[in-house]
Amino acid sequence: xxxxxxxxxxxxxxxxxxxxxxxxxxxxxxxxxxxxxxxxxxxxxxxxxxxxxxxxxxxxxxxxxxxxxxxxxxxxxxxxxxxxxxxxxxxxxxxxxxxxxxxxxxxxxxxxxxxxxxxxxxxxxxxxxxxxxxxxxxxxxxxxxxxxxxxxxxxxxxxxxxxxxxxxxxxxxxxxxxxxxxxxxxxxxxxxxxxxxxxxxxxxxxxxxxxxxxxxxxxxxxxxxxxxxxxxxxxxxxxxxxxxxxxxxxxxxxxxxxxxxxxxxxxxxxxxxxxxxxxxxxxxxxxxxxxxxxxxxxxxxxxxxxxxxxxxxxxxxxxxxxxxxxxxxxxxxxxxxxxxxxxxxxxx
Length: 348
Known about the structure:
Keywords: Plasmid, Signal. This is ABC transporter substrate-binding protein. Residues 47-280 form the Solute-binding protein family 3/N-terminal domain. It comes from Pseudonocardia alaniniphila. It holds the Pfam family NMT1. The protein is α/β, with parallel strands linked by helices. The chain folds into 2 domains: 5-12 and 44-125 and 237-325, 3-Layer(aba) Sandwich (D-Maltodextrin-Binding Protein, domain 2); 129-232, Periplasmic binding protein-like II (D-Maltodextrin-Binding Protein, domain 2, 3-Layer(aba) Sandwich). It contains 18 helices and 10 strands. A 5-stranded mixed sheet has the order 2-1-3-10-4, with helices on both faces. Strands 7-6-8-5-9 form a 5-stranded mixed sheet. α12 packs across α17 (290-297). The termini are far apart. 51% of the residues are buried.
């Protein structure tokens, strides 16, 4: 059966639908203590279940735990790793986790559908690239019309959505999902598909990006964040701190503490000379050039400040995505209450 583009997009976003369990009485977070509910700095240990996907999020949680930043802010963090964004987004809605590093597009859709998703902080912009083989006849991103592009996160991912904007604004491809044949596959398989000639180019994840650039076997057709920033002047925050209205209502102090721990972690990552070597070892990148490449690719993409200016930039990004993805398939406007900047107080 051949699926319409609208149906494919909605199926790809199926993980978001699991958020309905929370909205309809499934899941449900712990009530929390009075201290957890207060937005004041925590004075006693409070639990937090954090959901992450591999990549830049992994590094943050690794450093946050290793350097004691969570403990500094009186958080006892339990980390659950999910292999794809849809599973993580579902876990946020089901209260399997309290907080997750959610994708902008999925959280916007969940909010629009009345499922209580809410963004209270920002983590990073894409460190991803689109690559092709060195021997490919594809010279620029524009040449991908009618060809096969592998996309590690699929059509529903925030990275793909931002790539669609870049394709339209810089490379003249008005409808990336319609004018290019999108092949969805796990990140670990993407370069193999490219090497075998099963796809013509690949939009790859953070670790695969580093591996590809170090190998010397591929040419970069687009650095997603770099191209977006050149067009619009600000990095696109695509992975953000997300929770639900229900959890925030009774855990403002915990969210505030998490934001403080996140601030400390990002500052440490951007200044410590050893963190990249430690992380390269953790993810089994043995090339001696890997730490510097990780620093250049990942470190420069973290967004340090969550404030109204950044929230406005995220709203603008959603507005840019609407004509690219379609209001019926995405959201008709920025959902009211999606972004919260009022939960932050002094945490030091």
